[in-house]
Queue: 2 jobs
Job 1
Amino acid sequence: MASSIDPKLVEELAAIVGVEGIVSRASELKVYECDGWTVEKSAPDILLLPRSVEQVSRVLRALDRKGIAFVPRGAGTGLSGGALPLNAPVMICTSRMNKILTIDYANRRVEVESGAVNLHVTNAVKAKGFFYAPDPSSQMACTIGGNIAENSGGPHTLKYGVTTNHVLGVELVLPDGEVVELGGAVEERCGYDLVGAVVGSEGTYGVVTRATLRLMREPEGHRTFLATFPDVESATRAVSRIIASGIVPGAIEMMDKLILRAVDDAFHVGFDQAAGAVLIIELDGMEVGFAECSSRVIEMARAAGAKDVKLARDEAERQLLWKARKRAFGAVGRLAPNYCTQDGVVPRTRLPDILRVISQVSERYQLSIGNVFHAGDGNLHPIILYDEREAGQVERALGAGRDILKACVEMGGSLTGEHGIGAEKIGEMPLMFSPDDLAAMMELRHVFDPKERANPGKIIPRPGACVEVAAPRRQVPI
Amino acid sequence: MSEHPASAHRDVTDYELLFDCVHCGLCAEACPTYVATRSEMDSPRGRIYLMKALAEGRMDLDADAARHLDLCLGCRGCESACPSGVKYGRLIEAARVFVECEYRRAGFDRFRRAAVSVVFPYPARLRALLMPVRILDWLGLRKVVRTALPVAAREWLDLLPRHGTNSTEANWPAPGAIADDAPAVIVHHGCVAQVLAKSENANSERLLAAAGYRVVKIPSTKCCGALDLHAGNGERAREFARANVLAISKLKPDAIISAASGCSTAIAEYREILKDDTLAPEAEMLASKVKDLSSLLLERPLQFSARFDCVVTYHDACHLAHGLGVREAPRVLLRSVPGLKLVEMENSDLCCGSAGSYNLTEPKMARELARRKADSIAATGAQYVVLANPGCEFQIAAELRRRGSSIRVMHLADFFALAMTRGAKQNR
Ligand SMILES: Cc1cc2nc3c(=O)[nH]c(=O)nc-3n(C[C@H](O)[C@H](O)[C@H](O)COP(=O)(O)OP(=O)(O)OC[C@H]3O[C@@H](n4cnc5c(N)ncnc54)[C@H](O)[C@@H]3O)c2cc1C
Ligand code: SF4
Ligand code: SF4
């Protein structure tokens, strides 16, 4: 029970959110002790489920008075421990603030509460031929607030950009309870891009309660190809050629041999089992342009070494390909009792190099590593398979992951494409940033959260910070 | 409570199966109880986490844990959503056995559950219990008596269809001759369904005959065991399963269906339930024959003699959609009716709250889900809601009745009986 929290404050909080909106019994809080990254666990002392910005603001004001830190949480699908409470006794979950407030087709924007589920936004505007572009594979569950915090992307990021390109404005409750509006309804803004600063801040600036998002027009049509290659090198060659040619496909996704085997074992999609890699290439846009683009894509894939390039004949076949891609991770669970994934980025042209490094790492650590990723933007998701019951495998898996990330940074890439730094990669931040860089980031953070009470212990490393690390059993991929 | 709840739960659950869950949370929005409460203790991921903590002895089975497990509908919506292939149905069945053994519920809750367990699987007992209601309906006095009842009893009473109201005036032409080598189909009449869903069973058989199937009858039908399976009474579920396997397998059916989709999935699960039994081969055979009415009717298309101009929406019964994976067949079949317009409702596969006997044991949540379902239905502007499970039929009909709605709720078998016989009537 709320060990570190004064019972009076608990009463005050309960009065704000109502008895239905506060959870304080240990057996119930257990469920909130981790997000999609299960390596570390720590339950909050109190969970609040507010229903309005007023409630959030009053809660933060009360916490501020007592100097108590908090962690925001959306759907808890994060893969880097962003919603893990570290020295934050109170968790504020937006799951009940999930309304879609106004839809403005004429100006192509939609206003939502931050707990709205990503896919529900698209579902609400689909009938009129619109969609919300950032489409993380977790879109059936993750929230817009979580997407904003992590600057999430998805397969269609290649063409449409990540979350930051689609957020016009946010309502943010600062850690002292003040409600601020940043950005707004119009696209052209003057002054500093404060919305841009909030996107990707991983909950360290306060609680986002509302957002205005850009809507996109559904493209007139799609052409989705399955290209089969003898090895990953030729597949990545094809990616570079296509992008260099000036064609911007909606998505280019790659799966290697190991993943193909897993997917086919599970779902019997009928992939060529002799293949070394496949690409799913999707063109979207106006019907008139397809004929020429399609033949050029096929040509380039062939020239790069593709054995076979197939066009999905109808929507059902297209959906099947996407289902295979999006379900790939579930299938991997069948290959080994445990796996963990990384989220590094390299410049597209270095894809063959990093894949070579990954296969060396795999040999060095004696662990199988599968690759399934957003090839178009060089965003890797190597999946490291292991069995925690074998002595030393957990450590080897973590070590392999670290080596891969290091190589990404050395090639001019990044530690994370879309999953965020969170608690997971905080130790690797110095690989990318100098102490001065980190200090400057901390200063920016202090503008919003001078007392460091919003999601403490995330993104920016502090010497001496540590948590108890439990042995991972299995981790979620993508 | 036992001294070692940890090992006890580990004994009844397949511990390894818990590790199929990678804690990704993608199932949350597919879970009706999460959609209603929006707290993760009532989500599949949360429940699996509780089960795991119980199995590992990191937690006691306290009132909270029992509550969140009890609140699970067993609808298996999470299985359809899960990319990792978690066998949630098996996990929750095991957890229920554990809760039954280790936890003593508060007075009224215990009574309610015991009453269901003692009466429902036995048609004769249910008929006897319902006799007074039948008499009231016959005298037209249900409304009057209802007001004198305590709330809980009133809610139970409201779920009961008025006597005679759910059967279709079937005006069937005489069935044509059926070939000797036509596939043999058994309609399992269920336990509760035997009493409350007579027309659904009868019309299923008539439709199959009209489509040219040979309908084979079971001399006397025993409960399939689903109620016990879902209430944590594994022992009696096995007994029922054995009785059914013995009675049915010797009839050598080519297909077995049920008007209640929960019964169909239970029979499909006999291969699991009886896997260590001497009857395992027969159970496996029987399980492999489980089909659904709409798929069979698609294989041998019906002839409609008249148009049926109407707007219909289709509700996915949980065990049909999530258990047997049947979603398209009923829709294709509906669209084949000349004049019929099918309009999809939002979240058609989110449980209506009926869930076997759930609406009797967890009336509050059941009612909340019924309200949501009725809202989605009303938004379609449909005249008919068609569904393939009597439980959903009673639950949704009760909610629509409360609203004074004129939308008609019909079981797929009754609806197609109507579609078939309308023409016959007009032609005469
Ligand atoms: C199977 C699977 C597939 C995935 N695929 C992708 C993918 O393709 N692309 C991708 O980018 N990500 C992906 N992810 C990661 C994850 O879904 C995203 O990071 C998502 O944006 C997290 O949203 P959430 O609502 O679950 O946030 P949570 O996990 O609850 O929180 C994430 C972070 O956001 C903060 N936060 C949440 N809400 C607020 C708020 N209202 N105000 C301030 N801070 C807040 C939290 O403090 C935390 O730091 C995947 C995850 C899984 C499990
Ligand atoms: S049950 Fe499946 S979808 Fe839900 S959290 Fe577990 S693995 Fe993810
Ligand atoms: S069976 Fe239904 S109610 Fe139970 S956890 Fe799964 S989706 Fe939720």
Job 2
Amino acid sequence: MSQDAQKTPYNPPALEFKSSTFSVPVLVISSNDLIIIEQQLQAKVLLAPEFFKNSPLVLDIQELNKQSIEIDVVAVIEVIRKLGLLPIGIRGGDALQNEKAIALGIPLHSIHTSSTTIDAKKPKTLTPEPETKDLLQTGTTVITQPIRSGQRVYAAGDLVIIAQVSAGTEILAEGNIHVYGTLRGRALAGVQGNTEARIFCTDLQAELISIAGNYKISEDLNPSIRNTPVQIYLDKQTLVIKEI
Amino acid sequence: MARIIVVTSGKGGVGKTTTSAAIAMGLAKKGHKTAVIDFDVGLRNLDLIMGCERRVVYDFINVINGEASLNQALIKDKNCNLLYILAASQTRDKDALSQEGVGKVLEDLSKDFKYIVCDSPAGIERGAHLAMYFADDAFVVTNPEVSSVRDSDRMLGILSSKSRRAEQNKEPIKEYLLLTRYSPERVKLGEMLSVDDVQEILSLHLLGVIPESKSVLNASNSGIPVILDEKSDAGQAYADIVARYLGENKPHRFIDDKKGFFGKLFGGK
Ligand SMILES: Nc1ncnc2c1ncn2[C@@H]1O[C@H](COP(=O)(O)OP(=O)(O)OP(=O)(O)O)[C@@H](O)[C@H]1O
Ligand SMILES: [Mg+2]
């Protein structure tokens, strides 16, 4: 395993620059109403509080500037920070906005990053960094390892888990969620608002289930559906849990 | 090439150090040259349980810092000449452990030892992370109660994602469940989770169940790993665990209420 019996230098260098690409959620703002921004962002955060806690984020104000809508960059950044997110960059700003951002210690990002192509597909959405690689960009994410307490998974498309999902976890998908195993954590399907999304699982003991923001907590789940395969879908804003 | 075993849990006080001492002794007694390392910098107590606290001259951190050689720091066990202890420092702060330093020590030990047992500190911070990072096998020590099970679950997540094996896309760490301080009477009263409950939550290979036992305290007071107390239930449970780990087929014991027999006799369920 450790074939390289390399000697460590006596005084190893203390630092090194490495180039690395990260995928970071981009928050595209399309309104300059701070109250509305705060409300909507808060709603997103509440959907997956563990996921968003201290999550880095790049603020994108290109859309506003295109439409010449003025925005108070300093105030927006304050709102974002207040909700527990950590802005680490801004893009699409004009000279004055950029100057203000830098004064707050927030670096500028050019629009022509590799992630632009991804954003182009789904503008105006918050795309948190998936912990697990997608098979296809928005296809199906298949996971065969158990999801353990403290872990979270985000899938841009459907999410299929062929193992158990422990309590204290969060699994999120923009599409459907399938769990072939016991589901004990929080499962949120259709997190970008897809009301057609469904959750399927072989044993429902979840802490919370949600489809497009309509949720039920474990207390509200009928114990009679335990240990039976179920599907969960939305019928006019009401979550329906049905035996399969 | 040594096999590196981490004894870990997440939650504190569940029996990691007791287990590390017992299985290291058990492996050595079976004829395998074994080293046991205390990763609990600042709170060392493996040396107390091994009864070598008065023979510590140099510790793990001294070796990492190049202030002592491994040979100077390794303490030969008084009961078994195939077992060596690398004590933790009581005086240094936790940051003294570096990933590079730990990796180097483990690599050097690997040349000479068959098994290296790493006694992890509680928590999921630096010390615990470094104790598991280089592991090949993980003994996840769990007590039959909800908070301990939850912490073990969390540790399993970390083992599968933040270890060297995970980072290098190698075969994952082999994970084993050790259920300790088990009391069938209390399970019966509904005060504790049963073996089945814990296994259902963690879905993990059960290496063995160690009963709650006075012999553990007696052993640690006299500085002799409990596995050497061959008459004790806990000692036998650890001996079974070592045997199973080495591939022997041993039926599980200490799971049922001792009084179960009479219960059956008198028509209980
Ligand atoms: N099977 C057992 N029966 C009775 N007591 C036990 C048993 N196992 C451990 N103990 C007791 O539990 C206490 C904690 O054990 P130990 O120090 O091994 O735990 P630990 O997980 O290493 O703790 P820490 O997280 O502080 O390092 C000790 O007092 C020990 O004697
Ligand atoms: Mg300990």
